[in-house]
Queue: 4 jobs
Job 1
Amino acid sequence: MADDLRDGDGTRVVRAGLPAEEPYAPPLPGPALTAHYHLPGDVAGAPYAYGRDANPTWTALERAVAELEAPGDPAATATVFASGMAAISAVLLSRVGPGDAVVLPSDGYNLLASVGERLRGWGVEVRTAPTAGDAQLGVLDGAALLWLETPSNPGLDVCDIRRLADAAHERGALVAVDNTLATPLGQRPLALGADYAVASGTKALTGHGDVLLGYVVCRDEELAEPVRLWRKTVGAIPGPMESWLAHRSLATLELRTARQAANALAVAEALREHPGVSDVRHPGLPDDPAHEAAARQMRRFGCVVSFTLPDKGFAERFLAALRLVGEATSFGGVRSTAERRGRWGGDAVPEGFVRLSVGVEDAADLVADVRAALERATG
């Protein structure tokens, strides 16, 4: 259904991508569990020909995601994938080739480094720069694609999307923005000049920790077609059940992300009070290094808080002492989770660095749990 810009976020998310109402029909049709379709005659123009190409359940979810990333823009199209990394790979591997240059964040999601190594092996020049301070400006000349991740994961730095997109376009480069942490309700990269909005729907978009999913949204069919072809060629398709679960979960996106953002700010403020905690980061903190830039382009500041504890042992004692916060990777779920990021070895962070994903529990309970765990870890 067409997006109505008069409606607020809470109204739009519960109706995004739904079909026209029909008597006695479910508002959100169930998953289309099929590998093939009845396909008589000429296949040209057939909306559904084979299960690797398209699925009605994907179509509904893609319509919904496009409505959220680009409200009111009928030209926006989404392509959903089996995971966030599949979505990231689809853009990077379909847009750059031997002899091209691509700019990646040096502090982005750690698997970007693996993709960068693969690109180098194919003859692509891979340049990196940190997110803070719009440092990518210094390495843009001659690049074919600029990849931004803002806020960055796990450090939570922010760059100016509009400024960087304008600079990249002046130099003939395309711009992709990883919008995973912000979600479409927190930030709209396409409205800020990006060519692609990319995200892992595994995180806050679906929010329940039970679905792996990714998506790419763009406004230009010439940009969308190579991404869809990449999905078809490598088979990086989402299951219909996962797609249906994701669409169902969108209805609570506004409620979940608003609660998480408020809770995250409360937890960040509490963490700063403890003498054993340093470098607390959350874009919503008024004196956070990223706050000024975030306030210009974000509508809410996300669910992730990062901070550093004195050492590895302290961090592990803290995590073990938490009652309401599970020790797990990923972020964006309704249940709070945390982990010591150094255990993966892919992020340039101290041994005591913790990434905390704040859920929808009562803020007072989370704050009390964090404070108690800090005291037990200290003792």
Job 2
Amino acid sequence: MKLYYSPGACSLSPHIALRETGLPFELVLASTKTKKLADGSDYLAINPKGQVPMLALDDGTQITEGPAIVQYIADQAPASGLAPAAGTIERYKLMEWLNFITSELHKGFSPLFAPDTPDDYKPIARNRLLARLAYVDEQLADRSYLLGEQYSVADIYLFVVSGWGQYVGVDISGLPRLMAFRARIAARPAVIAAMKAEGLIK
């Protein structure tokens, strides 16, 4: 498998998931700005969306969109426990969280990273994000992870996205449960390895 990624982007989520499972994979750096690969070739030629992540399987199949990719990864290593079994109510709860993170949090950050977003809109975007993150903080009141006591790919995705606040002025220091959650995830060996590989930590 090949994972096309950009350092610190949402592709960090499947990157961590791959390291958690121990599945063999190759990292391929893809610039989301220039749409070029490290060898200078055109990323758009293989992925017209021009975004990361993209997972290329050994048979040539390509999967895009983070929530789909992390579920695929988890299903290749069911013993990892990163996703409940397909068809169970717990699996639908996982999908519920993945959808919430991708639509309400991930996309909520997009205007704050976009250079053409009007300055007067940014406080509105930050407040909306904080409200949604406060909801997550409340959900963590009686559990260690989003699904309870079982660590999953939804936790990985939340860890990645909630970490973007430091770059765009979204201060989560007033959300103690989310902060504690982030500390738990950050201490995991697979998370440390992935972040080192992307140059995010030393």
Job 3
Amino acid sequence: MILTQCAVCATELGLTLGKKCGRCSTRYCGAECQVQHWKEGGHDQLCKKLKKAGGAEQYNANTKYTEAVAVAAEKCAEDTKGQTCYICTQALHWKTKEGLVRGCSCRGTAGFAHVSCLAEQAKILLAEAEENNLGEKVLYERWRRWHRCSLCKQDYHGVVRCAIGWACWKTYVGRPEVDSFMARMSAMRCLGMGLSAGGHHADAVSVQEAEFSSLQRLGVPEDDILVSQGNLAIAYERNGRPEDCLRTWQDIYSRRLELFGEENELTLQTANNYAWGLCGLERFEEAKALLRKPMRVARRVLGENHEVTLTLKKVYAGSLCNDPDATLEDLREAVTTLEDTTRISRRVFGASHPSTTGHEESLQEAQALLRVREAKLEGDVNARVNALRDAVAVMKARRDA
């Protein structure tokens, strides 16, 4: 994670409190911890090395980046075997010797790359836009290269997203908090999202709380603050804090409706996340009531193939089949809905994309629950036992995945 704690006692400092080493900027809660770290913690041996690397924060970013790239390359090793980077055309990176990754929706022989090459390409494109004053729209589009594949136009996911998040942070950590593009704050957001995608949920919370606090302190536009708050809500949910998650989504949804209206894509995404939080606390009737209108709006405004539309329908189906009071017709509606979303997701994103596997897992669970209910109504004891066994197996497999 980013350095928001005292290097000695781990007291939380946020981004502004405490003291810093005058040479390398290692952070402390006070003079006592700073002296102890120099005398007993080995900082006297490490300080010059940290300074040479650009300071403690830069050194930490470089180290975490190297670790994350190694994890991503190992995870992708089987998929990338025998392939070459579409940017540098080499199998091993000429300088870092890192392996290839692919963590998007590219299929076949497309989309293989080194994290270093993806990072360098994104860095060059953004620098060109800044130097030539190409405008906010171009800057935003080019910034997407830090989290979205330029070939398939889909976001990176998993450990690849995590490695690219560290690449982004190490590139812009030295920038001031406020500059022409808020690059440091944007990089912090990219890192937080990457940590979450890579399964480092506690670290993601720490980074995203720091970002949210910073944006509020800097007085940036409210839309940017709401995006940061949404990322924080996701991190709360993944870190086992459902009440904090739900309260945050409720606040964001109310504010986005007020600012942007019901047809805005971000408002629709927030409706989905708010409903997901309700389902997590087993408030299924509230979730179903919330989702019905956004689903209709999303189909009309975004289209049937859009990921937001598909996700709204999946969460609605989940609220149907996970409700203890669900009727047989509720379960059948859930299965039909998930069959549709799974078919579309396979076609749009590919079979291995997390969105597709999520729809497939939800469909399997809904089908299993429906078989249990139908067997119960038919009075077939053996069929009911088998259906229950299948349902338990499906839900256990999903929980353990």
Job 4
Amino acid sequence: MKPLWRVVTVPPTLQGEAAVRFAEGARRRGAEVLEVRTDLHGPEDLDPQALSRGGPLLVSERGRPLPPAWVKAARYVDRDLTVSLDAPAEKLLASHHAERPLSTAEALKLWDCPLPPGALVKHVEPMDQPGHVAVLLETQSRLIERFGAERVTVLGMGAIALAARAVLSRRNVLEYVAMGGEWSAAPGQRLLEDAFRDFRAPRRGPARLGILGTSIAHSRSPRIHRQPFDRIDLPEQGPVEALVDSLLPHYAGFAVTSPFKLRLARHTHSSLEAINTLVRRDGRWESFNTDVEGARAVLQRLGGQETFVLGDGGSTAALRAVSAEVGCALRVLKRADITAPLSGAGIWTWPDRVTPPESLHFDRARVAVIAYGAPGRRIATEILRRGGTPLMLGAAWFVAQARRQRELWETAT
């Protein structure tokens, strides 16, 4: 058994040949096991033999019984230990999905049951508090003591569980990951590309890096920084302060993006209005704002003239910090201030998930876009629609601030 198998679940919208093509694509991108579940597909929706030709097939019973043809084609058969463990011994994956967070003692008691030698063990709990990661790690260690490191998987579930899953993955046998896009098999899953990049990277010790934000599937940070680097996508009102505190033993640093730059500045008692970088030093988080490097690069590209700024979040704080240095007067506009078409040079700092006011129009203004990738392209389209000319400066901002982040993370203790 390899130390980790990356598992991707077939989406419920795909059947027949479409499901086979999905499986082929997932395996090309680094998935090792394909899962099909009875709550997502019926017996006639899929050809299990075709799905198993490219690699191991995991079939999971969720409410409805497993079709015999699925069990025959499968390498692993997931059965809930509280329902039935009726599966070929050499194929059994015994699982339990708890309805609430459990103490380690409660979790271990569930597993006081006879299992066939070699059967895999999967224990899953919902996470309602970030600090529960410590309990899950203890549960994982105790289950490994009981069943062996080559058999155990422990997972957290829920909107704040992604970072816990990344930490737990170091000792898990199975890692359930999402392909990306609009659908994932469970809340809190890592992206396949992040898990595969982590797997291929040389080991550099226990500490991880990551990026904290909302709607950050497009982020390029995991591609350019040393691994493991986790994309931790949280709800906008998520408990990010408690999360970073609970992850202090496991992470050397974080990049911080919208909408958490101001909240984490306050939480870390920073003298800065907003921060975008956390570095672990001497058992605590130290905070920095390397966005000033990106802000300097963008303002210099705009030529140092008076510049209007749309949005007043963490990026605007960085622009304020360097505007005098580059000889640029900033005019920060609140939404209510926008009543007439804007001209000259400007910077759009709103994330693309923020709907701009209907009153926003441009009179041939040159507007810098500091997002990149698909969000940057969507913002550029909006600027064109409203009469402006977009300047795609997101990459310049990103590279300038990332260089400084890398230097800071190298100083982590």
